[in-house]
Design goal:
Order of helices and strands: HHHHHHHHHHHHHH
Structural class: mainly alpha
Helix content: over 70%
Radius of gyration: 26 Å
Largest sheet: none
Strand content: under 5%
Mean pLDDT: 82
Distance between the termini: 56 Å
Shape: globular
Low-confidence stretches: none
Length: about 300
């Protein structure tokens, strides 16, 4: 390209839009984003690098680079503690709590959104008000309720998966109902009315018309319910025993009286995080759409 056709720096600067951001702003944004990315990724690097180190490297002074790389901690995590059993318990508890929470929330939110009934406002305010109290306030009451039910009826809720599932429902269900109410309100009622005119009953109209339109909101509620149950520690440490212990509590087994297997703790933490990360990546599109619609409403 000749000098006659090559655009000069002055010409390029004149061609820039008057609304374009100044160079100082662009560099400041790059620096801030780089620092934030480093702040977020640094703990991930420490976790990954520590899981690939021998125990002596993580037991002494911190080292940025391992003396030698090893994947042995990823094999040892299954033998030091019964991690597979804890993994199954967490999947059963979190999955069951999610299915029950979403199912009940769909019916409840649809009734509140589409019908008028006595006590509707009291119900919605009560559901929302439950989110104001910290979860630890319910620990002792639930413990006493489960023990008394077991003593009087023989139904063992304390120390069982079923009792832990009911416990997690007290957290996820109110939020799920409240969020789906807002999402169902954003769906035009004309769809329901058209389905009813075509001969659908209320339940059929719900599952064939409203639920397909509310998939992003339902996915967002499902992810919230699953993550709440998957990573909860306080209630799981009190309401479970050796047979029903979940991952969040089972990870404490890598700390013994003599030593803490930090490399296995990091390796197990990465393994435990895989279902959450994979699920989030697969459902990210629906999750963002559901949270955005709920916030706008």
């Amino acid at each position: 390209m000749s000098s006659l056709t090559r655009p000069t720096r002055t010409a390029r600067s004149r061609a820039r839009s008057p609304m374009a951001a100044p160079q100082s702003f662009l560099w400041t944004r790059r620096i801030i984003l780089t620092l934030l990315a480093g702040f977020v990724l640094l703990p991930v690097y420490v976790m990954v690098s520590s899981s690939l180190k021998p125990l002596q490297d993580v037991s002494g002074k911190f080292q940025w680079l391992p003396s030698r790389l090893t994947i042995q901690p990823y094999f040892d995590i299954w033998e030091t503690v019964p991690l597979a059993k804890y993994f199954v318990n967490s999947l059963i508890v979190a999955g069951s709590a999610t299915v029950l929470s979403v199912t009940i929330a769909v019916f409840s939110a649809y009734a509140v959104s589409r019908y008028r009934f006595r006590g509707k406002r009291v119900f919605t305010v009560t559901v929302l008000s439950t989110q104001m109290f910290p979860g630890i306030l319910f620990l002792l009451p639930l413990f006493l309720i489960f023990v008394n039910i077991g003593n009087s009826t023989g139904v063992a809720l304390y120390g069982s998966r079923g009792g832990l599932i009911l416990t997690y429902l007290t957290f996820s269900l109110p939020f799920s109902i409240w969020m789906l109410i807002g999402y169902f309100d954003s769906i035009p009622r004309d769809l329901d009315e058209a389905a009813l005119v075509d001969g659908c009953g209320p339940v059929r109209a719900l599952f064939q018309v409203v639920v397909p339109a509310a998939v992003p909101g339902i996915v967002a509620v499902s992810v919230y319910s699953f993550m709440t149950a998957w990573g909860e520690v306080l209630f799981a440490s009190v309401m479970t025993n050796d047979a029903t212990r979940t991952l969040s509590v089972g990870l404490q087994g890598y700390a013994t009286q003599n030593d803490v297997y930090w490399n296995q703790v990091m390796a197990a933490s990465l393994v435990v995080s895989v279902p959450i990360v994979v699920g989030f990546l697969l459902l990210q599109r629906y999750l963002v759409a559901g949270l955005t619609a709920g916030a706008v409403k």
